[in-house]
Amino acid sequence: MTLTCTLTICTYNRPHFLVETLRCALGQTRRPAEVVVVDASDTWEEHRDQMLEEFAGEWETVTLVYVPADVRSLTFQRNQALRLATSDIVFSLDDDIYLYPDAAEKVMAVYEADTDSEIAMVTGRFADGPYQTSGKAKHVQAGEPVGRSKLREWFETQLTLDSHFVPYADPVDMGPVPASVRHLNVHPSGLVNGGRTTFRRVFAMDSGWTELLRYYATHEDSDFSYRLSRFGRLVVAPDAGFFHADGNDSTASRFRINTIRVRNLLALHAVHSSNHIRSALRCFGSFTKFAGLYLIIDAAQKRFSFPTVRAYAYGIAQIPVFLFLPMKNFQQWYTELQERMYGNRYKS
At 207, is the secondary structure helix, strand, or coil? Predict the structure, then answer.
């Protein structure tokens, strides 16, 4: 079974990253059928023309759809790109994610082996840098960690993406992968962040990203992959290498970032959970645990104002507001709250 794939990218004022992301995508051993770019920049047309000129010869065989953002927001842009995609499989990448040359080939092999569509999402492995985009791309293998204590290893297991997210219902299935793909190097995966997300488009059309998270969208990827796991398995193909160029330019304080994190999670439970009492108990337990963990971490990092601890303590106090206070329009209330606590970063 041969499937087609679409690469979707959401961007905002970062053509220097976008050009390298496209260079790596178009240099794949398994090229995409189409590329969809949703650009929130005021000068999106200039960026589009730059990409058309830079890769002029490539667009003869790969369809380019380059459009302005209907709404300047990562979740809205991702959903807009999803609606424009037409292939069986979607690679939804950040604009600073560079694919290793055979990444798409490795990922697509999993989907094509999964003839019963038991797998909803395949992710790859974040590879170590530096990644060379000029000339032949180079894999750099991670070395064995040196001098890591058992205590540090334990802390790292407590601070994973899955640990920070509180599920609305059952946890993600971590059982054996489907029999159809066991001959491949594929393993069960927990939640997936957006930098290396690929999925079956038909499942995502019934899910999408939660547009309630409009500005600083922490937890949007965990939420998306968790809800997609209701349709099929999440797996990782570690031979598929992704490099994150790390274009994060946030200047928000640690306290504010973590306050947004806990509030976003509470907001997601408010709209997706069918049992708010269960959600309240789960969030209380999670926030209490992280307040205790970060009490040690903040102190060890000499952050004696304990910004992360205060954020999680504040989250505990906010549980009744988000999950039990009656509101006429929760989405409008939370959108306005996001603007006050972080600000619309797309405003000039």
Answer: coil
pLDDT of residue 254: 87
- Are residues 318 and 274 both part of a single domain? yes
Tell me, what's the pLDDT at 137? Answer: 41
Tokens of 202: 């038909």
Give pLDDT, residue 252. Answer: 67
How many Å apart are CA 276 and CA 106, to the nearest integer? 40
**Whether 237 contacts 289, CB under 8 Å:** no
142: left (phi over 0), alpha (psi -120 to 50) or beta: beta
Percentage helix, strand, coil for the chain under 3-state DSSP, each rounded to 5: 45, 15, 40
d(CA 255, CA 215): 17
| 44 and 131 part of one domain | yes
Number of domains in the chain: 2
Q: Taking the model in full, what pTM does it have?
A: 0.89
Tell me: do 215 and 291 sit in the same domain.
no
8-state DSSP, 24 = H
Q: What is the pLDDT of residues 16-44, one digit of tens each?
A: 999 999 999 999 999 999 999 999 999 99
Distance CA 208, CA 231 (A): 12
